[in-house]
Amino acid sequence: MIAADQFLTIAIHGALLVLLISMALVLWRLFRGPSAADRVVAMDLLTVLVLAFVVAFAIYTRETTYLDVAIAYACIAFLGTIALARFLLRAYHRMWCYEQEGKLDE
Amino acid sequence: MSEYIAGILIWVGSGFCFVAALGIVRLPDTLTRMHAATKAGTLGAGLLIIGGAVFFQELLVTLRALTIIALVVLTAPVAAHLIGRASYESGVPLSDRTWIDELEAYENEKRASEQYCQPGEW
Amino acid sequence: MNLFVLNIAFAALFVTLLEGGGLPTFLFGFALGYAVLWLTKPLYPKTRYFQKFPKTINLTLFFLKELAVSNLKVLWDVITPKHINRPGIIGVPLAARSDLEIFLVANLLSLTPGTLSVDLSEDRRTLYVHVMFLEDVEETRRQIKSGLERRVLEVTR
């Protein structure tokens, strides 16, 4: 049986490492695509991972101030995703309509 | 004792985050990838945040943690819904394991209607 | 709703009077406040707080259970080399009518077992749901309606 402190230290170091690896995987998907929607999904998950990382970092440094950072980040992070998704939605809608009218070549 | 609980919560939470990332890489199409991203990602981040609350054991920190969880749980499905619609409307191919698609008929019907390409619609 | 605010205020007062103490104290104060309000029930003839609160707890517990189960299933599909998913998109007729009800059903659905709300029809009668492990269309539809939607409607109506 390992001591409680030691267990927690191992856990938090492991968590930081695992989160970094996860971010690397998500970045691979972000670069790889293949469609724009895939990239938006990857970016959405990336914001959640960054949020988790900030919280893990707060535990790592034993500093509760970082939790305020996490709150502010959680407030604004999803706006980017929403904006990109709306943009995609409208862009494809418009493109489809132009294609129907044959105006796309102009 | 609380250190063990916090440690286990942190392990499981980061594990779920890893599963979400792995799912994004491994699953076949956009919609199934979103299953991994929204569910496993939200649960992983939530568990990690609860682990933090257990670790600090202060009322203010607990309240902050609950605020973060509420924000994530409220926003994640909204974002997922919008991305899902965007990916479906943009005609991203579904994986060949998909065996039923009842949305297709409705989508075609919507596109055939007069209003769909009216300028006000976008 | 006013009673809920009152209940929260009672719990906050309890924490202040005991000078600190964490979430357990707050929860205990909340439970105590709920008991006191319940004892004085005849004073508030019109409130439906006492019917709705247990239903809300019921919905929350159900939701947490589904969240755990669904994640284990997705986890299994992700970490094993062989894919077991059989995705499909089905339309679910909605009994929910108001904005809040539809919002709750769609969002909670997005967070629970292998389901993801993709689109809502223009007349707001049908919710199109992407299901990751779809075996039987009618069965899944029935599960969504009797499981999640029924519990949401119990809270909002």
Explain the layout of strands and helices:
The complex is a heterotrimer of chains A (106), B (122) and C (157).
Chain A lengths: L3 H29 L3 H26 L3 H37 L5
Chain B lengths: L1 H25 L3 H27 L2 H31 L13 H10 L10
Helix pairs in contact in B: 1-2, 2-3
Chain C lengths: L1 H16 L5 H17 L9 H31 L8 E6 L5 H13 L3 E6 L5 E6 L5 H20 L1
Antiparallel strand pairs in C: 1-3, 2-3
Helix pairs in contact in C: 1-2, 3-5, 4-5
Descriptive report:
Chain A: Keywords: Antiport, Cell membrane, Ion transport, Membrane, Transmembrane, Transmembrane helix, Transport. The complex is a heterotrimer of chains A (106), B (122) and C (157). Chain A contains 3 helices and no strands. Chain A has helices at residues 4-32, 36-61, 65-101. In chain A, helix 1 packs antiparallel against helix 2 and helix 2 (36-61) runs antiparallel to helix 3. Chain B has one domain (2-95): Helix Hairpins (Orthogonal Bundle), CATH 1.10.287. Chain B is 76% helix and 0% strand. Chain B is built from 4 helices and no strands. The termini of chain B are far apart. Chain C is flat and about 55 Å long. Chain C is built from 5 helices and 3 strands, in the order H-H-H-E-H-E-E-H. With 157 residues, chain C is mainly alpha-helical. Chains in contact: A-B, B-C. At the A-B interface, helix 1, helix 2 and helix 3 of A face helix 1, helix 2 and helix 3 of B.
Highlighted features:
heterotrimer, A: 106 residues, mainly alpha, Helix Hairpins, 3 helices, B: 122 residues, 76% helix, Na+/H+ antiporter subunit E (chain C)
Summarize the structure.
With 122 residues, chain B is mostly helical.
- Count of discrete structural domains of chain C: 2
- The N- to C-terminal Cα distance of chain C equals 13 Å
Derived structural class of chain C: mainly alpha
Largest pleated sheet of chain C: 3 strands, antiparallel
CATH topology type of chain B: Helix Hairpins
